[in-house]
Structures are given as structure tokens and as C-alpha cells.
Amino acid sequence: MTKIVTALLFLFIGSYTYAQNEEVTLEYIQENDSIIFQVKSVAIIPIDIVSKQVDTIFPKIVYKEVATVFPNDSVRGFIRVHINDFENLKQARKERKIYTVEAHYGDRRNAKHDSTYLYTLPYQRGRKVEIEQTFFGKSSHKNIASRYAIDFGMRTGDRVYAAREGVVVFAIDHFTEGGKRKELTHKANKIVIAHSDGTLASYAHLMHKGTLVKKGDTVTKGQHIGYSGSTGYSGGPHLHFVVREPGDIAVPIYFEDYEGQVLKRGKRYKRKH
Ligand SMILES: [Zn+2]
């Protein structure tokens, strides 16, 4: 039966802050002539479950629904599929009843970036680091999820510090490879930290075994959290740093000592505090 579920539902279609599969599980229950879906979460922050019914003939979304599943809880009944559709995928396709379910970290309806917050530069105090790519950077900071990302020219093994206090949503450091190959897109080691305003910071391309924090840890601003590297889709060692509202929406961020300034590509910035 599991096979049918994966055939009918395109689960967790890859992206940036999508939930790790092992933290969210999708189950189904039969109720009379319907199959009802239930999502359970063991993540430490709320997760938005976005379910869509897609018209397969004229590719468009027929309906979209968002449910929020809270830590160690479940949400039930957000998709109801007739038993016949469930058992006959081909028929469901003909009748344009294809469903997708995505899971995103964060509760979109209760998150709003505090635009007055001043972040600390994520490297050692007293150090100067060059900006390799900034907001709307031509090589990879173009889409809604990364247009306000900043690439710091840090080397493999350089210490990475928390730019803002928060709670570690997850920390991955088992990946070993890096390069400009498509299959490495989702293979960057990273730390994701949830802030009090509901936004999420991502520190990406960390080195293999380069994290010092784990899921659930509380971190302070300026805490040493890991080591920079070049894992995943990366042209060379650097730290890709971005803050997002839930749903993968990057937000502009500003730093202490450089208030109101967009960091410029090619310029070096000193962390003074
Ligand atoms: Zn980047």
C-alpha cells in the first residue's frame, strides 16, 4: 500500500527549508469510501503542510490548502480521496485528481521578519571577509528563496558563528562532496536556526562533520556553531547565509556596524563586535 501512496502523492518535492523526511510522516486511514491522510511531526517547530490538487491536463492547481502541524502532534483529514481513485491511479489521472503534499518548516501565518534586527557577521570578531555574492547576485541569488542570500568568502575549516540567537531546527554534516553538479543541489551540510519572529536562518555548505550544534539546541548570537566548507552545489569554499520566512521566502537582512547597508560584492567587511 505504501507504493500507492508515493505514486499518488508527490511528497516533499525538494527545496530549501522543506522538512526532513524522517521528521514528518504521512499516513492514511480508510473511512467508509474515503482515504484520509494524516501528517505527524516530530520536528521542534511547527511545519506548514501544503496540499494541492493539480489539474494534469491543463497543468494548474485546482485547490491549495495549508495546514499547520505543531511539534509532536498530527493533522488529520486535510486530504480526502475517494477509495476508487486511490486504487486506480490511472483513472485518477484521467479525472485530474493528482494530489501533492509539501512540508515546509515554520508557521507561515505567524511569522513576520523583524526588519529592524541587526545581525552579527557570521565569522570571528576582528576578522575581515570578502563578499562573493550579495542580494540578487547574478550567479545563484535570483529566485525567491535566495535573492537576499549572502556568500561570505570563507575557507574550509573557518569558524562559523550564529548571526542571531535562536533554536537549532536541524544540523546536517554527513555530506562529503561539493561541486557545480546538479545532483549535489540538496547535498550541502547546513545548520538551520529558528528565530523568535518565526524566520529561519540557513548556514550552508559547511564542511564534513562541520557542525557543533544539534536539533533542539538554543544558540546565542555570536556563538561558534560550526565550520565553513564547500559541500553541496558549490563552486568553492564559502558560507551561503540566508534568512527566510516560512515557505522559502528570503528576506533582506542588515548587520551591526553596517546598518542599512547592503553588503557589496568584492568588498571586505570587518566584524567589530
Ligand atoms: Zn550563495
Summary?
With 273 residues, this protein is mainly beta. The chain has helices at 2-8, 83-87, 89-94, and strands at 9-11, 24-31, 34-41, 47-55, 60-69, 74-82, 98-105, 118-119, 128-133, 150-152, 159-161, 166-172, 178-179, 189-194, 200-206, 218-219, 224-227, 232-233, 239-245, 249-250, 254-255, 268-270. The protein is elongated.
List key phrases describing it.
3 helices, 22 strands, mainly beta, binds zinc ion, 41% strand, 2 domains, Cell_wall_metabolism_enzyme, 273 residues, nine-stranded antiparallel β-sheet, Immunoglobulin-like, Glucose Permease (Domain IIA)
What order do the helices and strands follow? HEEEEEEHHEEEEEEEEEEEEEEEE
CATH level 1 class label of the largest domain: Mainly Beta
Q: Unreliable runs, pLDDT <50, ≥5 residues?
A: 1-18
Overall shape: elongated
Strand count, sense and barrel status of the largest sheet are: 9 strands, antiparallel
C-alpha Rg (nearest Å): 20 Å
Structural class: mainly beta
Strand content: 35-45%
CATH topology of the largest domain: Glucose Permease (Domain IIA)
